Amino acid sequence: MxxxxxxxxxxxxxxxxxxxxxxxxxxxxxxxxxxxxIEKNYSPSFAKLCNISIRGKMISIRNHDAINIEVVKFSxx
Length: 77
Fold this sequence. Notes:
Helix content: 10-25%
Oligomer: single chain
CATH class: Mainly Beta
Strand order of the largest sheet: 4-3-2-1-5
Number of strands: 5
Number of domains: 1
Structural class: alpha+beta
Strand content: 35-45%
Distance between the termini: 20 Å
Shape: globular
Order of helices and strands: EHEEEHE
Radius of gyration: 11 Å
């Protein structure tokens, strides 16, 4: 499952990040790394952005980059 397919309010663990080096560096500087727990927030379709929360930060990622970020859905049950 990729990050764009995740539904609003769902939590997931990042499995792989297959984006360009410049974007990967920017994500790493914001705390987005493999094994991190993220939560998808409201992402309006007209903005073409995927909004996530990670460690208390809200980060927006372009949809064409979010497709290349693999996640594993997380359940607290």
